[in-house]
From TrEMBL:
Pfam families: HATPase_c (PF02518), HisKA (PF00512), Hpt (PF01627), Response_reg (PF00072). It catalyses: ATP + protein L-histidine = ADP + protein N-phospho-L-histidine. This is Virulence sensor protein BvgS. Residues 657-683 are annotated as: Disordered. Its EC number is 2.7.13.3. It comes from the Bacteria. The gene is arcB. It is an enzyme of class 2 (transferase).
C-alpha cells in the first residue's frame, strides 16, 4: 500500500475533471481520473482510494448505479463517495443517493473552498483509519509472538515443577517418619497448586481479556485457608513472623465457587505481605458480611505490619508487571503480576478488592466475594479423597488404541495400561491410526490416546479424518501431548478431540483419565508396594552418580520399574551416538524443519529419561532452529556442546551398567524346553502381549521389547526371543503359540 492516499475523480467531461484537480492542488494526495462509470469500477478493483468524487449525470452508467456497485463490492464498500451534481440536487435525489451508498453531496458549480475542506476531512479520517489498522495488525503480531513465547516457556516451567511433584511423591513412598511425611505432603500439595495455577498464568491473554474459566464446585474455605497457610508457613518461620488466621464461626462448612482461584488470591496476598514484612505479624481473616440459605457475602482480609505504601504507590499496584517502587524488584524480586491477577480473579468472580495502607504502618487487603452455600449432598464423590482412591482401576475388556511415534512413550503407556488389565493396540503415526480404524470399524475401540506432533500425519489431522469416517463421531479421542497451553487445549477440542492429558503426566492423572472415559469393569488386583528406599537394584547407585541424570524423577515416570528404565537407557546409548551428525546432515541439505522436529523429539525422550542437562541443551537448540539461527556461531556451539554432552552421558551409562553385578540367572539347563510355558502365573505383560499377537497387532514388537526389559534372565526370556523372531517374519500366530500353546486368550 502506497504511503500517499489516492482520490478518484469520475466525470464524463474532461473540463470538470480538470477543475476538480485544480481545486485540490494543495492536497497531499494522488489524483486519478476516470471518464465513465465502467472505467471507474475497473480502476477500483486494482487500486485503493481514500475518496471518490463521483459525477451523477453520465452516459451509459450514471453515478447512482456506479455507487450501488461500489457498495455491493466488499473491496470498495467502505470507500467514501461524494456526489458532485447540478441536475440531481433535490431532497429526493439526495435521499436516493444516500441509499445507494453516497457519503456526501456537492452541488455544481463547485465551491473550491468547500470541496477542499471536505476532501481534507475525509483524507484525515482515511489516515487515522490506516493508523488504527496498522496498530491492530501490530497488536495481533505481538499477540502471536507472545503466545509462541509462552507456549515454549510453558515446557521449561513445567519440567522443574513436575520434578518437584514427582520427587516428593517418590519420597513419600520411602518415608515412614511422620514429620518428614508431613513436610513432603505439603511440598506435594504446594506443587500441585502451583502446577494448576501456572497452566492458566501462562496464557496471559486469557487473563487480561477476562476470559479465564471459573469453576463452581463445592469446597471448604477453611481447608483452602489452611492449605494456603501451610504452603507459606515456613517463610513466616524463617523471618520470625507470627502467621495467624481468624475465621468467622458462622462460615458454612461448604461453599460453591472456585477453590483454586480463591487459594491463588490468598497465596498472592500472603506472599506479598511476607515479602514486605520484616518484623511483627501477618493475619488472615475470614468474615461473614451477610448470609442466608442460598448465599454468603464473604470478606477475606490479609493484613500485615510491614513497610506499607504511599498513595502514589497504591495507585500502581494493580498494573501488570509493575512494582509499587522499582527498587522493590532489586530487593525482593517478583514480576509485579500477583496483585494484578488478584484483582482480575476477584472481579471475574463478581467480587472486588481494595487496599488501605500507610508508609511504615502496614497494609490491609480486603476481598469481597459472594458465594453460594452448598450442602454435603451437593459435593460430588470425586471431591472426596476416599472416593477418589476407590476409582475403578481394572479394565480387562477395554480396547484402547495408542498413537505415538516415540517407542519410549509407547512403552510407558503399555506398562501403565497393562497394570490395569488393558492390552492396547499401537500406531506409530496418525495415518496408521486412520488405516487401523477404517479397517476395524467404529465398534473396535473404546478409547484413543493420540499424540499431536508425529510424522506422516499429525494428531489433529488424524482426528479430523477419523471424525469423517462413518460411525466415528462419538469415539473418545484424548490428546496426549506436552503442548498444554489453554488455547492449545481449545484447538484440540475444536478439532474433535474429547480430552487432554499433558506430558509428562502423573500416574493419578493418567488413571483418572481412564476412569473418565472407560466403563467400569471391576476392581484391580492387588498392586505391589513401591520398593523400599534402600532396595535399589544393581546399578542404581552408579546411575544416580551420573552428572545430569535425575534417576529418581525418571523412575517415578516408569512407575518404579528399574529394569525397564535400564532397558531404555541402553536403547538411548545405541540410538544417540550419531544424533548430532544426523542434525548436521539435515541442515546441510536445507531440511531445517526436519532437523527441528528431530531435536523436539529428542528433547522429549531425554526429558522422560531424566537427562535434564541434555533436555535443556536440546530446548536451546530447538529455539535456535526455530529462529533460523542453526548455522550461527551460537547454533554451531550448541550442537558441539550437545554432542559432547551426549557422549559423556553415554559413557556414564555404559560404565554404570557395566559395574552392575550380574543377576542371579536361572540355569538354562534347568529351564523349560523351548515352547513350554514356564511354571507359575503368567506375567500381566505377557498376557497383554498374547492379546496383541492374537489380533496380529503391529504393536506386538514393542510389547515384546517391553516384556524382555521387564523379564531379563528369567525362564520367559528364551520364549520371548523366539517369539520376537517370529514377529519379525510377521508370523504372529507362531509367536502366540510359542508363548501360550494353542489356547486362545479371551
Amino acid at each position: 500500500m502506497s504511503g500517499v492516499p489516492k482520490i478518484l475523480v469520475v466525470d464524463d467531461l474532461a473540463a470538470n475533471r480538470l477543475a476538480i484537480r485544480a481545486a485540490l492542488r494543495g492536497v497531499e494526495a494522488t489524483i486519478v481520473e476516470a471518464g465513465n462509470g465502467f472505467d471507474a469500477l475497473a480502476i477500483t478493483l486494482e487500486e485503493e482510494f481514500a475518496l471518490i468524487l463521483l459525477d451523477v449525470q453520465m452516459p451509459e452508467m450514471d453515478g447512482f448505479e456506479v455507487c450501488e456497485r461500489l457498495s455491493a463490492n466488499p473491496q470498495t464498500a467502505d470507500t467514501p463517495v461524494i456526489f458532485i451534481t447540478a441536475a440531481h440536487n433535490s431532497p429526493e435525489d439526495r435521499i436516493h443517493g444516500y441509499r445507494t451508498g453516497a457519503t456526501d453531496y456537492l452541488a455544481k458549480p463547485i465551491n473550491d473552498q468547500l470541496l477542499l475542506a471536505k476532501t481534507r476531512v475525509f483524507l484525515r479520517l482515511y489516515q487515522q483509519n490506516r493508523a488504527l489498522q496498522a496498530a491492530l495488525e501490530a497488536a495481533k503480531v505481538a499477540d502471536r509472538v507472545k503466545d509462541a513465547f509462552l507456549a515454549n516457556v510453558s515446557h521449561e516451567l513445567r519440567t522443574p515443577l513436575n520434578a518437584v511433584i514427582g520427587l516428593s511423591a517418590l519420597a513419600l513412598n520411602h518415608s515412614s517418619d511422620p514429620r518428614q511425611r508431613e513436610y513432603l505432603e505439603k511440598v506435594s500439595d504446594a506443587g500441585q497448586t502451583l502446577l494448576a495455577i501456572i497452566n492458566d498464568l501462562l496464557d496471559l491473554t486469557k487473563i487480561a481479556a477476562g476470559e479465564m474459566s471459573l469453576e463452581c464446585t463445592p469446597f471448604s474455605l477453611q481447608k483452602t485457608v489452611a492449605r494456603a497457610l501451610s504452603v507459606i508457613g515456613h517463610h513466616a518461620i524463617e523471618k520470625g513472623l507470627r502467621l495467624e488466621s481468624r475465621i468467622d464461626e458462622r462460615l458454612p462448612e461448604l461453599l460453591l465457587g472456585d477453590p483454586l482461584r480463591i487459594e491463588q488470591i490468598l497465596l498472592n496476598l500472603l506472599n506479598n505481605s511476607l515479602k514486605f514484612t520484616e518484623t511483627g505479624w501477618v493475619v488472615v481473616r475470614i468474615a461473614i458480611e451477610d448470609i442466608d440459605d442460598q448465599q454468603a457475602g464473604l470478606l477475606i482480609e490479609v493484613e500485615d505490619s510491614g513497610i506499607g505504601m504511599s498513595e502514589s504507590e497504591i495507585a500502581r499496584i494493580y498494573q501488570p508487571f509493575v512494582q509499587a517502587d522499582p527498587s522493590i524488584t532489586r530487593k525482593h524480586g517478583g514480576t509485579g503480576l500477583g496483585l494484578a491477577i488478584c484483582k482480575q480473579l476477584a472481579e471475574g468472580m463478581q467480587g472486588s478488592i481494595e487496599v488501605s495502607s500507610r508508609l511504615g504502618e502496614g497494609t490491609r487487603f480486603r476481598v469481597h466475594l459472594r458465594l453460594g452455600v452448598a450442602t454435603a449432598s451437593e459435593c460430588p464423590s470425586g471431591d472426596d479423597p476416599a472416593a477418589a482412591e476407590n476409582l475403578p482401576t481394572h479394565y480387562p475388556a477395554a480396547r484402547v488404541l495408542v498413537v505415538d511415534d516415540q517407542p519410549l512413550n509407547r512403552d510407558l503407556v503399555f506398562e501403565l495400561l497393562g497394570s490395569v488389565g488393558i492390552a492396547p493396540r499401537f500406531a506409530e503415526n496418525g495415518q496408521q491410526a486412520v488405516d487401523i480404524l477404517r479397517e476395524a470399524g467404529a465398534q473396535a475401540f473404546d478409547l484413543i490416546l493420540m499424540d499431536i506432533q508425529m510424522p506422516v500425519l499429525d494428531g489433529l489431522a488424524a482426528t479430523r479424518r477419523i471424525r469423517a469416517l462413518p460411525g466415528f463421531a462419538t469415539l473418545p479421542i484424548v490428546a496426549m501431548t506436552a503442548h498444554t497451553m489453554v488455547h492449545e487445549k481449545e484447538v484440540y477440542l475444536a478439532e474433535g478431540m474429547n480430552d487432554h492429558l499433558g506430558k509428562p503426566f502423573s500416574l493419578p492423572a493418567f488413571f483418572a483419565l481412564l476412569a473418565r472415559w472407560l466403563p467400569v469393569q471391576g476392581d484391580a488386583p492387588a498392586v505391589a508396594a513401591p520398593p523400599a528406599a534402600g532396595a535399589a537394584d544393581a546399578g542404581g547407585n552408579e546411575l544416580a552418580a551420573i552428572s545430569g541424570l535425575d534417576t529418581a524423577a525418571a523412575l517415578q515416570r516408569f512407575a518404579g520399574n528399574r529394569a525397564r528404565y535400564r532397558h531404555w537407557l541402553r536403547e538411548f546409548v545405541g540410538e544417540s551416538a550419531g544424533f548430532t551428525a544426523t542434525i548436521d546432515t539435515l541442515l546441510a541439505g536445507g531440511a531445517s524443519e526436519s532437523a527441528r522436529q528431530a531435536v523436539h523429539a529428542f528433547k522429549g525422550r531425554v526429558g522422560t529419561l531424566g537427562m535434564r542437562e541434555l533436555q535443556a541443551l536440546a530446548a536451546a537448540l530447538e529455539q535456535a532452529l526455530r529462529a533460523g539461527k542453526a548455522n550461527s556461531p551460537a547454533g554451531h556451539a550448541l550442537r558441539r556442546q550437545l554432542a559432547q554432552s551426549i557422549e559423556a552421558m553415554c559413557a556414564g551409562i555404559q560404565a554404570a551398567l557395566a559395574q552392575s553385578p550380574p543377576r542371579q540367572a536361572t540355569s538354562r539347563a534347568s529351564g523349560p524346553p523351548p515352547g513350554a510355558r514356564p511354571a507359575g502365573p503368567m506375567p500381566a505383560s505377557v498376557t497383554a502381549l498374547l492379546r496383541l499377537l492374537q489380533d496380529a497387532d503391529g504393536g506386538s514388537a514393542t510389547a515384546i521389547a517391553s516384556c524382555l526389559a521387564e523379564l531379563p534372565d528369567s525362564d520367559w526370556e528364551p520364549l520371548l526371543q523366539a517369539a520376537r523372531a517370529q514377529v519379525q517374519k510377521f508370523d504372529f500366530e507362531a509367536a502366540r503359540q510359542l508363548l501360550a500353546g494353542r489356547e486362545k486368550v479371551e
